[in-house]
Amino acid sequence: MGKLLGFALAGILAAFLGERFMELRRKLNASRELEPVELPNCHLIKGIESGAEDIDILPNGLAFISCGLKYPGLKSFAPDKPGEILLMDLNDENPRAVELRISRGFDIASFNPHGISTYIDKDDSVYLFVVNHPVFKTTVEVFKFVEDDNSLVHLKTIRHDLLPRVNDIVAVGPDNFYATNDHYFSDPILIYLELFLGLTWSNVVYYSPTEVKEVASGFYSANGINISPDKKHVYIADLMAHNIHLMEKHANWSLTPVKVLELDTLIDNLSVDPYTGDVWGGCHPNGMKVFLYDPENVPGSEVLRIQNIHSANPTVTQVYAENGSVLQGSSVAAVHSGKLLIGTIFHRALYCEL
């Protein structure tokens, strides 16, 4: 009887593990292959060789680029090089990426930038919020941009128990922001277990100097976050669920669900065109190739444009799709005046004229 019970339990466990493995493969789009969608007027951005994970463009055409992310379990082509913030002026005829100098006193050696967001204050001061992972911890660094000498003045470092695994951020004031925690756990082994079991413990947190609170939860992996041009709605990408959550923002900074837009790709960072309201997403068509990097079978890249996202039937257009021969692991797409920048987690970046 004991052996029979043992065999039964072993069978149940095997069935459970098999089901979890198949579900993880489905979430990672492990079987998806891309049909290419090309853009004619594109070139690789010189000087970006180890990722441009996030990009934020000011209304005046200055683009901030977060480069050099080292993330547990993911490929890095420059594991010993500190991260950096680059700037491109998209008003130039031939824009180039230049490194922004960071003020003295900031620990550049451990700088590991992830998601970024800009905020323009009433006096036109520009603040740059950077998710940072020094020694694979999480902080949010706040800088003031000094355009005259292409530099960043470090203002403060933010740490909080409700911000343990921040992926992306959207600034809504000079001191306050929304942030996504892409996992509940911080330990790499527990993160893999979280993914394998399909736990929906990822969340979104609102931060200000006087109040910090969870404002949305129940995500597989809350990733990119951004805000509508009228500042009334917040968009949240759930990477592993292949969807975007639209949330209404309230006066007390709480969020309530409006709708969910289902997609067929792992959508990473979100950018919003301030003039049209279109949402642009850098996507991973096959997440398995990102997490289990194979130089003989590299991850591809995909860019989606979502028009009329608040309507009953938004228009979703695949603007760019490529098998990795040019770009590996696209994570962001941002536009300004007919110019498109596409960044990646750990590879290169593309400049296109639409």
Condensed summary:
The protein contains three helices and 25 strands. By secondary structure, the chain is mainly beta. The protein has a five-stranded mixed sheet, with no helix packed on it. A four-stranded antiparallel sheet has the order 1-25-24-23, with no helix packed on it. The chain has a four-stranded antiparallel sheet with strand order 2-3-4-5, with no helix packed on it.
Label this structure with key terms.
single chain; 354 residues; mainly beta; globular
Task: Provide the fold topology.
Elements: H1 2-27, E1 42-44, E2 52-57, E3 62-67, E4 84-89, E5 98-99, E6 101-102, E7 113-120, E8 126-132, E9 139-146, E10 151-158, E11 166-171, E12 177-181, H2 188-197, E13 202-207, E14 212-219, E15 222-227, E16 233-238, E17 243-249, E18 255-262, E19 266-272, E20 279-284, H3 287-291, E21 301-307, E22 315-322, E23 330-336, E24 339-344, E25 350-353
Parallel strand pairs: 6-10
Antiparallel strand pairs: 1-25, 2-3, 3-4, 4-5, 7-8, 8-9, 9-10, 11-12, 12-13, 13-14, 15-16, 16-17, 17-18, 19-20, 20-21, 21-22, 23-24, 24-25
Written description of the protein model:
The chain is mainly beta and 354 residues long. It contains three helices and 25 strands. A five-stranded mixed sheet has the order 6-10-9-8-7, with no helix packed on it. It has a four-stranded antiparallel sheet with strand order 1-25-24-23, with no helix packed on it. It has a four-stranded antiparallel sheet with strand order 2-3-4-5, with no helix packed on it. A hairpin with a 4-residue loop joins strand 2 and strand 3. The chain is globular.
